[in-house]
Amino acid sequence: APQALAAATFMLAGFALAQQDILWRDIQAILRRSPLRHMQTPGGFTMSVAMSNCGPLGWVSDRKGYRYSPTDPLTDQPWPAMPPAMQQLATEAAALCGFDGFLPDACLINRYAPGTRMSLHQDKNEVDYSAPIVSVSLGVSAVFQLGGMQRSDKTSRISLQHGDVLVWGDEDRLRFHGVLPIKPQQHPLTGEDRINLTFRKAG
Ligand code: MD3
Ligand code: FE
């Protein structure tokens, strides 16, 4: 059963464990076609998280800004299709948390090596804020920061383990959030890395 972390933020601890092998194979197949890369921020910095995408739309960042693109700028090809096991996991997790009919059109793949962090931000590049976001954590653990509607609001810390799924929407959709620097660890599936899948209705 989902655990409520806020009014519309839910943790499904271990929900992805049953699918871990197929998810991992699917991820490797996606990354052979659209490899992980460190994107540039509009301000000219290089992101420490390495990223790729699957599905009809993919999140990209470069000197021109943040946006969703139907093609991978590295290959000029469409992003790899979203594998059915990934889409079904996101749809089922959302439904368990009260978001029926969630059909993601974008899945961002984030790779955190030891020391990688993601600073506090809001997810604001999607067209429709009424859809939830679903995230799946694989590999080494992370400490997630959940803040409020303003960057200066106090944050709480939530430990994310291999197989955990988070679902958030409605009034929590625009909360600030981030990931603290990943501590050196080993995981049998991913080695020293953390992989996060973030499913969104972007377009
Ligand atoms: C936001 N990724 O890609 S997702 C991102 O673990 C991103 O890779 C992080 O933020 C990652 O944009 C975090 C997890 C998450 C969970 C609950 C939230 C984000 C949330 C609740 C409210 C707002
Ligand atoms: Fe985010």
UniProtKB/TrEMBL annotation:
Cofactor(s) named in the record: Fe(2+)
Keywords: Dioxygenase, Iron, Metal-binding, Oxidoreductase
GO BP of this protein: oxidative RNA demethylation
Stored Pfam families: 2OG-FeII_Oxy_2
Domain Fe2OG dioxygenase: 103-203
Note on how the cofactor is bound: Binds 1 Fe(2+) ion per subunit.
GO CC entries: cytoplasm
Binding site for Fe cation: H121, D123, H177
Origin species: Methylovorus glucosotrophus (strain SIP3-4)
Signal peptide start and end residues: none
Name of the protein: 2OG-Fe(II) oxygenase
GO molecular function: broad specificity oxidative DNA demethylase activity; ferrous iron binding; oxidative RNA demethylase activity
Source organism phylogeny: Bacteria, Pseudomonadati, Pseudomonadota, Betaproteobacteria, Nitrosomonadales
